[in-house]
Amino acid sequence: xxxxLVGIVMGSDSDWPLVQKAAAMLESFGVAFDVxxxxxxxxxxxxxxxxxxxxxxxxxxxxxxxxxxAHLGGVLAAHTVLPVIGIPVAGGALNGLDxxxxxxxxxxxxxxxxxxxxxxxxxxxxxxxxQILGTADPELREKFRAYKDGLKDKVAEGNAKVxxxxxxxxxESPVRAPQWIRTDGTARGxx
Length: 191
Ligand code: RP5
Known about the structure:
Layout: E1 6-10, H1 16-28, E2 33-37, H2 44-54, E3 61-67, H3 72-78, E4 84-89, H4 97-104, E5 113-114, H5 120-134, H6 138-172
Parallel strand pairs: 1-2, 1-3, 3-4, 4-5
5-O-phosphono-beta-D-ribofuranose (RP5) is lined by residues 10-12, 14-15, 39, 66-68, 89, 91.
C-alpha cells in the first residue's frame, strides 16, 4: 500500500457522509490518503499530535472537516507547515454558517484554505489537494487537466440536450403569444 499523501481528518464520524465525497474524489485520481476522526475540542492532544507528525509521516496536504464551532482546520494548521484545506460542515442551529466563519476567518499567518458548504465542499477540497500535489507531479497534473476538459465536455453535452428539449417544449407548449401581438412583435391596431 502506498504512503498516504493526503490526510483527511473530521471532527466527528457524523461528518463522514459529507466527507466521503472528498475520499471518493481522491480515490478517482489515484491519490493515496488516510482518514481519521479527531476533534479539536474533544481530543485536543490528538489533534496537535496528528498535525505535528503529519509531515514526518509523508503527508503533503491535510483536509480538515468540522461543523459548529469548527476549529479543527485552524488547530491543525497551527501545528504543521503543511497546507490545510478546511471543509465547513452544515448542521445545528446556524446551519453551517458558524462552521463556515470559524473555518474561514483565520488570522494572518495561519491560513486554512476554506471550501464551500454543501456537497461541492469536499469535492473541491479533494480537487485542490490534487492541484497542490500536481505542482510536483506532472502525471497527476495531466490527470487534473483531463478532469477539467471533462467539465467542458459535460457543459457541451448539457447544452446539446437543452437545445433539443427546449425546442420540443416550446413546440408542445399550450402557451401561445396573445393574438394581438403580430409575429414581428408589434401590437395589432397600435400602428
Ligand atoms: C463538530 O461537531 C464535528 O465536526 C461535527 O460536525 C459536530 C457535531 O459532532 P457530533 O456531536 O455529531 O459528534 O466537532
